[in-house]
Amino acid sequence: MSQSPAPAPTQTFAGKEAVLQALPEHAAIQAILKWNSAALTDAKLAFGELTLTIDATQIRAACGAVQAAGYNFFEDMTAVDWFPGSPRFQLSYHILSHALKERIRLCALLDAPGPDSEPSIDSITPVWAGANFFEREVFDLFGIHFAGHPDLRRIMMPDDWKGHPLRKDYPVEGYR
Amino acid sequence: MLKNPGAPVLDLPVSEHLGEHRMVLNMGPQHPATHGVLRLVVEIDGEVIVSVRPEIGYLHTGIEKTCEAKFYQQVVPLTDRINYLDPLSNNLCYCLAVEKLLGLEIPERAQWIRVLLTELSRINSHLIWLGTHAMDIGALTVFLYTFREREEILRLFEAVAGQRMMTSYFRIGGLAMEPPLGYFERIQAFIRTFPEKIDEYSNLLTGNPIFMNRLKGVGYLSAADAIALGVTGPPLRASGVDIDLRRDMPYSSYEKFQFQVPISTVGDTWARYEVRLVEMRESVKIIQQALDGMPGGPVKADAPKVVLPDREKMKTEMEALIHHFKIVTEGFAVPAGEVYQGMECGHGQMGYYVVSDGTAKPYRVHMRYPSFATLQALEVMCKGRLIADLVAVIGSIDIVLGEIDR
Hints:
The structure holds two protein chains of two kinds.
Chain A: E1 13-14, H1 16-22, H2 27-36, E2 40-46, E3 49-54, H3 59-68, E4 73-81, E5 89-97, E6 102-110, E7 120-122, H4 131-142, E8 145-147
Parallel strand pairs in A: 3-6, 7-8
Antiparallel strand pairs in A: 1-2, 2-3, 4-5, 5-6
Helix pairs in contact in A: 2-3
Chain B: E1 22-27, E2 39-45, E3 48-55, H1 63-67, H2 76-80, H3 87-102, H4 108-137, H5 140-161, E4 170-171, E5 174-175, H6 183-205, H7 209-215, H8 223-228, H9 234-238, H10 245-248, H11 269-292, H12 311-316, H13 318-330, E6 337-345, E7 348-356, E8 364-368, H14 370-374, H15 378-382, H16 387-397, H17 401-405
Antiparallel strand pairs in B: 1-2, 2-3, 4-5, 6-7, 7-8
Helix pairs in contact in B: 3-4, 4-5, 4-11, 4-16, 5-6, 6-11, 11-16
């Protein structure tokens, strides 16, 4: 696979067009564009790390597309709560390629209509079974549901716990 | 659940009344062989394991939430407490992530001392694994041998950081301070004799028929399953996947060091034992190279708004005093953005995902720890095997509950 010379890590490219121009032959971008170019809603290259924002309804298929392109190893996934911003939740998937020695970040943005609402996204466990515990952790600590997850239960907190501690409207200490 | 096609077939007598002899066994959370507070709900048929379900969270302290309420520099001591057997790797990974956000240039000497001490920390982690793993199998003596060397490593940590386990020696922008006089000679003395000590462990275990019988062919994990389940580090390399972030995605000037990455294609518990033994020898080589080529110069980056000034400067320069006051009272702002820093710690691939919103406190810190993902492979490795093998397999994946529960 041919690789174009990587831009210097200090350079920042924000927006889909700018990143496509900076990295015309990137394997992950090519795979996403070939699979469904409309699903790639945004892209960013900052600190030498590539972030591809994917339409939240398409995340499982996007993971399958990059997996087929050589990004074979699911490394990490977590969520960020941008409360009270909108869309509220950002899910970040870090995928590593053993062959290309390169990591990409797939992002999905999820909105929650009310402060206590629990949004839902497709589970990626059919693509990488190893996402199981990571998705359970996000479910437990953020209250995001994963459709198609084989065993969606709380993992860190007790089963009868109320609330989701890593949400920003949950206090660090004291009573709620 | 995933199939395990390449696993050696175990010829066990099949129960005539299949299903009738099934029972659910609750192992842990207080069990000496689970290395902490791991609870396993094991379904067994006679002595054969039907399913294993890990129940975790008994040590959850909400470190990720705590980080959001601290200044960036105050998070460093929290990271020690996650994987308390490999403290300097935690420090390094967090510091590298924040330094990436800040765009800090770290002096070469600080980078080399970081490599040196991280490798020492890796040996520390492997020594505890070896001692406790052998003890679980019944070879109690090895524990006393490995803890003899571990004690020396802890003394070396104490000499440089003032703390035996919770070191917090790596800071954002470099090191806490220059190592004391004669420190490198002490490390040299330690690694001069250490390869012989590895031979001692090997003499006790490698030819030991009980140890071999308990480990060989047990806990088989194929490369495909290991990748699918997010297994990293020695268990992944023992399954034949040639990946080590120190070599493949170097950080902190690892690209300047020559070392071998041990691989085994067997994929069983024994292979993991062998891989880790060789890794300790390779760590010694890296430490030797770091000692031989240790560059001079400062150990802190030239960034007065981020790095605390030296004591002497504070007493003589007004500006240094102001910077010190500001860093301690209101922290330092980190440019907005998100970074993921991966590295290879003793157990596998560690990762810190730091999101900044431009203030002095991290908006989100997420830690990816290898044991958390590796634990998912437990069922694949144990299914259809005897219950006694479960203890051998838990030992071989080298879990620390502090990093699983965080």
